[in-house]
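Q: Convert this sequence to structure tokens.
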Amino acid sequence: VQLQASGGGPVQIGGSLRLSCAASGGTFSDHVMVWFRQAPGKEREFVAAISWSGGSTSYVDSVKGRFTISRDNAKNTVSLQMNNVNPGDAGVYYCAADQSPVLFTGSFRYTEERMLYWGQGTLVTVSS
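A:
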């Protein structure tokens, strides 16, 4: 599966931005899709994940209520709607395909090591 992320750019504090990730090759619905981000000088962190059907989602606490992950299996795309953006949301956003189609929640943590495929990243900058 090849992944191509897009939609990054400048956004003002409190503003909105929509990231997209297009998949090609393989079977898109075989994978939970995940968004990670990496701020300058920091490690890459999990942001959000969505099950193969789109029926289940998981978010890092810092984006709950502000970000929405969605997917369209007919179009092989996964999106991340970012609302009420704050400076902590700045960084390079990566989409990735997990090794399982089933979304695990609760105490489970999605880590980079689980991901089979990665997009190239798209940069989000936040300004006042």
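The mean pLDDT is 96.
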